[in-house]
């Protein structure tokens, strides 16, 4: 931990556990450190980063005109898997925000992330610690698999307890908008806001990468099964085509693949590790059994849709 903080002070990037996914952390006030993060990830410079901060008490260092709605959400969900988009403080580097007038902020709940932030004493950018477009990491091992010798320092904080990225709520314009669903439900967020939460970005808003392109994706082509039901779960007639199934609840006899639990929290926790495992198994393709179309599964269905080559 001390070595990691020293490395961050030298402007290096460090693999950092958070409760959602592992981040590629670097000093949010250091232009060269941020450039290194973009370079390591292979991420276009125009795609803004989330700044991870120690607590709500340093919010004014990063944001201006903080609305009451932000205070309410922060009081209810920080530290935790929620990112707020607010109007940026003038001191926030363009390299962080992609030159936008807003900044994304989050207080992570993972004890290691909190310890590092408190010892470092300043904000850290931390995009998910994967190459751009690839599956996010939920163990230190995944981060090492992504970057190898390019990232010598990865802190092992165990398996992430949430497993998919934070919910992003934009409070920088009129009303509140959910830019990226996470494991906090729309209803919980709306209840804490005390106001409606629109889904998706406004038409004229800047780009959010996850919203536009294939993302969170394994290398193996992946598609959703068109219709559920057991008929589709039988092994393919053409046995030369080697299919791996990502099942929900149970894996039918004679079918290869992985079954994730029919429980959204447990499914989310296991999702990215399962995608990596299916990728390593070198199937010709991965087929996904569609999880239930209910609000509790919204964020999971969002990630699956973006990981798929076909449409859900
Ligand atoms: O759970 C998480 O949020 C993880 C962990 C490591 O904290 N981080 C993460 O970062 O998912 P990343 O860089 O993979 O995704 C950040 C998302 C992107 O979709 C980006 O476009 C959006 O946040 N974002 C960042 N700044 C923004 C801004 N000013 N306005 C709108 N969206 C923004
Ligand atoms: Mg990411």
Description:
The protein is α/β, with parallel strands linked by helices. The chain has helices at residues 2-9, 31-41, 68-77, 94-97, 111-120, 140-147, 186-193, 209-212, 264-280, 298-307, and strands at residues 14-16, 23-27, 50-52, 63-64, 82-88, 102-106, 124-125, 167-170, 176-180, 197-199, 222-224, 243-248, 257-260, 285-288. Strands 1, 2, 3, 4, 5, 6, 7, 8, 9 and 10 form a 10-stranded mixed beta sheet that branches. Strands 11-14-12-13 form a 4-stranded parallel beta sheet, with helices on one face. The chain starts with a helix and ends in a 5-residue tail after the last helix. The mean pLDDT is 92. The site of threonylcarbamoyladenylate (TXA) has 28 residues, from strand 5, strand 6, strand 9 and helix 8.
- CA gyration radius, whole angstroms: 19 Å
The arrangement of helices and strands along the chain is HEEHEEHEHEHEHEEHEHEEEHEH
Bound molecules: threonylcarbamoyladenylate, magnesium ion
Global morphology: globular
Instruction: Write down how many β-strands occur, each being a DSSP E stretch of 2 or more residues.
Output: 14
Biggest sheet record: 10 strands, mixed
Strand content: 15-25%
Alpha carbon gap, first and last residue: 42 Å
What would a concise description of this structure say?
The chain is an alpha/beta fold and 312 residues long.
Features:
single chain, 312 residues, alpha/beta, ten-stranded mixed beta sheet, four-stranded parallel beta sheet, 10 helices, 14 strands, 29% helix, 18% strand, globular, binds threonylcarbamoyladenylate, binds magnesium ion
Task: Provide the fold topology.
Layout lengths: L1 H8 L4 E3 L6 E5 L3 H11 L8 E3 L10 E2 L3 H10 L4 E7 L5 H4 L4 E5 L4 H10 L3 E2 L14 H8 L19 E4 L5 E5 L5 H8 L3 E3 L9 H4 L9 E3 L18 E6 L8 E4 L3 H17 L4 E4 L9 H10 L5
């Amino acid at each position: 931990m001390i070595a990691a903080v020293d490395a961050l002070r030298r402007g290096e990037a460090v693999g950092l556990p958070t409760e959602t996914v592992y981040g590629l952390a670097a000093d949010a006030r250091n232009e060269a450190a941020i450039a290194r993060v973009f370079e390591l990830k292979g991420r276009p410079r125009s795609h803004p980063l989330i700044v991870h901060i120690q607590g709500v008490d340093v919010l004014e260092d990063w944001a201006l005109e903080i609305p009451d709605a932000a205070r309410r959400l922060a009081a209810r969900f920080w530290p935790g898997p929620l990112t707020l988009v607010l109007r940026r403080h003038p001191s926030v580097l363009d390299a962080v925000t992609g030159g936008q007038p807003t900044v994304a902020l989050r207080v992570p709940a993972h004890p290691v992330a909190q310890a590092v932030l408190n010892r470092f004493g300043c904000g850290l950018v931390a995009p998910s610690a994967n190459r751009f477009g690839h599956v996010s990491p939920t163990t230190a091992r995944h981060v090492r698999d992504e970057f190898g010798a390019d990232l010598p320092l990865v802190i092992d904080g165990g398996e992430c307890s949430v497993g998919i990225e934070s919910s992003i709520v934009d409070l920088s314009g009129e009303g509140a908008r959910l830019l990226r669903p996470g494991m906090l439900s729309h209803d919980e967020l709306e209840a804490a806001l005390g106001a409606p939460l629109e889904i998706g970005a406004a038409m004229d808003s800047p780009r959010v990468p996850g919203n536009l392109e294939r993302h969170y994706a394994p290398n193996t082509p992946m598609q959703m099964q068109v219709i559920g039901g057991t008929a589709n779960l039988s092994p393919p007639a053409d046995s030369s085509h080697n299919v791996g199934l990502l099942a929900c609840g149970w894996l039918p006899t004679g079918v290869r693949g992985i079954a994730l639990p029919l429980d959204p929290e447990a499914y989310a926790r296991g999702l990215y590790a399962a995608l990596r495992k299916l990728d390593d198994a070198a199937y010709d393709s991965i087929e996904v059994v569609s999880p239930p179309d209910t609000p509790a599964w919204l964020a999971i269905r969002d990630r699956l849709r973006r990981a798929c080559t076909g449409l859900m």
